[in-house]
Design goal:
about 50% helix; Hypothetical protein af1432; mainly alpha
């Protein structure tokens, strides 16, 4: 494989950067789904007081979305909505949303980004917080979608007796979503 001749980016040429961009994109996109599934698998393990671990929670969320005949965007959003727990426990919603932003609809991105505050409706008041904190987003066109996501695909996905689908069931949705060109603006 070709390598550039310089050791400082300031010395690169347009040809160098066009070449490097293609090599990087091909590499990164080629392994993206496998990399995301590896991160998701890190949610396996301790139940942390719940009846299922965070991995099974994620599979249940996606199982419910798939069985409700949701779009691939929603199924993938449900599967990966808590992936940020692995590497960003203080802002897991925003981290998961950032991963999804280039590939899913604006609505799914917004819902994943805000699901943490909306999920608080079910428990914030038990910890001295405001269960209605989500209402600060009442004017958002995605408010109802986020409320529904948390009600139908998040707060109810801690059931050890639920017929949870295996990870392989989500391969078509993952392949569809992550094969798309990025929705983010290109630098080129």
């Amino acid at each position: 494989m070709r390598t550039v001749t310089w050791t400082e980016m300031a010395e690169g040429t347009e040809d160098d950067y066009r070449y490097l961009d293609k090599v990087y994109v091909d590499h990164a996109r080629g392994g993206l789904v496998d990399n995301l599934l590896s991160i998701l698998a890190r949610l396996k393990g301790p139940k942390l007081g719940y009846q299922v671990d965070r991995y099974v929670h994620s599979l249940q969320s996606a199982s419910r979305a798939l069985r409700a005949d949701e779009s691939a965007d929603w199924v993938v959003g449900a599967l990966l909505h808590d992936i940020g727990d692995v590497f960003a426990p203080e802002n897991h919603s925003e981290a998961a949303a950032a991963l999804l932003a280039p590939y899913v609809s604006d609505e799914v991105h917004w819902v994943v980004k805000h699901h943490g505050i909306f999920q608080g409706y079910y428990y914030f008041h038990h910890l001295g917080g405001d269960r209605n904190a989500r209402d600060r987003y009442a004017d958002s066109p995605h408010y109802e979608a986020c409320r529904r996501f948390c009600a139908d695909y998040d707060q109810n996905c801690f059931d050890p007796d639920y017929d949870t689908l295996p990870i392989e069931a989500f391969a078509p949705a993952l392949d569809e979503v992550f094969a798309r060109p990025s929705r983010l603006p290109s630098i080129g």
